[in-house]
Each structure stands twice: as structure tokens, then as C-alpha cells.
Design a protein that fits this description.
Elements lengths: L2 E5 L3 E2 L5 E2 L2 E7 L1 E4 L4 E2 H23 L3 E8 L22 E9 L4 E3 H4 L5 H16 L2 E3 L11 E4 L5 E2 L1
Parallel strand pairs: 5-7, 10-12
Antiparallel strand pairs: 1-4, 2-3, 4-5, 4-6, 7-8, 8-9, 8-11, 10-11
Helix pairs in contact: 1-3
The site of zinc ion (ZN) has 4 residues, from β8.
């Protein structure tokens, strides 16, 4: 798939957190910044999303391919954000990725925090790739979901199908 990654040793942390069968992914066609441990099936799905619909929509809607995907990370030993719950996040299992923005070949930078509520092609692009993400991941949370997700798209392969 043209993915740049290294295999990580299995890790079990405190409080039920873990990163088993995980890789450190730094590119899938475009470079991918700031990821930590990511479970292999999620990394595979993410690479397919980046190489497929993200690039297709970037070319068609924004007029330029993506050269860098900016993330806010993957593995993090923490609870679900933005809801009253002490449930561990899928991030605690290296089974979630937060995407915050994209840099295009023409130098333009599209961020979720600025583009989602903007008008025009950036908002169209971000909604298009969110909708495609819903076909490839189990849970997808965008700024439409809650304030905690105003600046990123959360994608994971845990729990039940949910797309907003
Ligand atoms: Zn997240």
C-alpha cells in the first residue's frame, strides 16, 4: 500500500491501556505527522482512506493533492473526552486517530478548526472525507458531534458503528 511504518513492540500500560499489534505510521502516499502507536487494522484502514477518498476529494474539490496529513495523535492513555463518562477512549488501545488538518501540494493548509465552519471548498472537502470515513471506520466523530471535536476528525475501529 506504499505505507511508511515501523512495527512496535506490544505495550501494556497502567489502568487497562495497551498498544498491541501496533505500528508507527509516518506516511501513506502523503506524509502523516504526529501519530503514536496505532493498531495495525486501524493503520491499514487509515492508509486506505488517505490514499483513496482523501486524495480524490482533494484533487476534485480543492484542486491539489494532499502532501501531509496532520494528526493530533493516536495512542493516548485517557478516557473519552467531552462526555460524562469514565470509559476509556479507543485511544487508550491505540485504536483511534485524530486528524486535525491537511497540507496540499500547492502550499494551502486546510484545518478542521477553520475549514469546517467556513464556506466553500474547504468545508465541502472536510464533509466529503468525513462521509467516506464513515464507510471505512466504525466510529467517526467530527465537529458536528460536540465541542470537544471542533478541531479534529476522530476515527476508530472500536465499539459500535457511529457517524456524525
Ligand atoms: Zn479521538
Amino acid at each position: 500500500m506504499g505505507v511508511k511504518f515501523s512495527v512496535l513492540p506490544d505495550f501494556v500500560g497502567n489502568g487497562g491501556c495497551s498498544a498491541i499489534n501496533s505500528v508507527l505510521m509516518t506516511g501513506a502516499g502523503a506524509s502523516i505527522s504526529n501519530l503514536r502507536a496505532t493498531q495495525c487494522p486501524l493503520a491499514r484502514a487509515f492508509a486506505g482512506w488517505v490514499r483513496g477518498p482523501v486524495q480524490t476529494h482533494a484533487r476534485e474539490i480543492l484542486g491539489s493533492p494532499v502532501v501531509r496529513v496532520e494528526t493530533m495523535g493516536s495512542y493516548a492513555c485517557r478516557q473519552v473526552k467531552g462526555v460524562a463518562s469514565n470509559k476509556l477512549s479507543e485511544h487508550a488501545y491505540a485504536n483511534a486517530i485524530d486528524v486535525s488538518g491537511f497540507v496540499l501540494a500547492d502550499g494551502r493548509r486546510v484545518t478542521v478548526v477553520n475549514g469546517w465552519l467556513g464556506k466553500g471548498d474547504e468545508a465541502d472537502f472536510l464533509r466529503a472525507i468525513r462521509n467516506d470515513a464513515c464507510k471505512r471506520f466504525l466510529t467517526v466523530l467530527s465537529p458536528d458531534y460536540n465541542f470537544a471535536h471542533r478541531d479534529h476528525l476522530h476515527v476508530d475501529l472500536g465499539g459500535r458503528p457511529y457517524c456524525r
